[in-house]
Amino acid sequence: MTDIHPLRADAQRNRERILAAAEEVFVARGAGASLEDVAKRAGVGIGTLYRRFPTRDALLAATYSDRFLSFAQASRERSAGLDPASGVRAYLEELALHTSVYRGLAASLGTVLQVGTPGCHATTEEGLRLLDHAQKAGAIRPDITLDDLVYVVTAISLAAEGDDSPKSRIAHLVSLFLDGISVR
Known about the structure:
CATH superfamily of the largest domain: Tetracycline Repressor, domain 2
Protein name: TetR/AcrR family transcriptional regulator
Mean pLDDT: 91
Radius of gyration: 18 Å
Structural class: mainly alpha
GO molecular function: DNA-binding transcription factor activity; transcription cis-regulatory region binding
Keywords: DNA-binding, Transcription, Transcription regulation
Helix content: over 70%
CATH class of the largest domain: Mainly Alpha
InterPro entries: Homeodomain-like_sf (IPR009057), HTH-type_TetR-like_transc_reg (IPR050109), HTH_TetR (IPR001647), Tet_transcr_reg_TetR-rel_C_sf (IPR036271), TetR_SbtR-like_C (IPR049445)
Pfam families: TetR_C_43, TetR_N
Shape: elongated
C-alpha cells in the first residue's frame, strides 16, 4: 500500500520501525503472530500500527515486498533461458518456497498479493507474463488463470509446511499439477 502524500519524518520512522519489528516477529513466530507484539517490538502503539497497516495482510505485504520484487526479477531473468512450461514450473516452485520464510504465509498468499505493494505488483505481473507466454505457446490450457496458479501454490505450500525436504516435495506437487493443466 503506498501513500499519495510523503510521510512526515516521525511517521516514516514509525513505519520503518514497524516493518523491521514485523520482520523479526513474523520470522520468529509466523505470519499469524500477534500484531500487538509487532507494535510493542516497534515501540509504537497498536493504533499507530493500524494507521499505517490497516490489516494483517497489508503488513505482511509491506514486510515481504522487497522479497517479492527480488523474486519477480529473478524469475524474469531465469525464464529467458527456459521454455514456456519450464518458466511457469520454476515460478510456481520458487513462489511456494518463498512462502515458507514466514510460517503461515501460504494461507494468505492470495490476499497478500492483492494488497498492491510494488513487490506484489511485480510478482503478479511476472506470473501473468509467464502464464500468457505458456498459453500462447500451447503449453498450458487457455482456461487457466493466475488465480488458479496462486491457489495451487497456496495448497502446495500448505502441504509442504513442516516437511523435512520442502523443496523436493514442492517440485513433486508442482509436477503433478502441471501434468494436469498441460496441453497434450
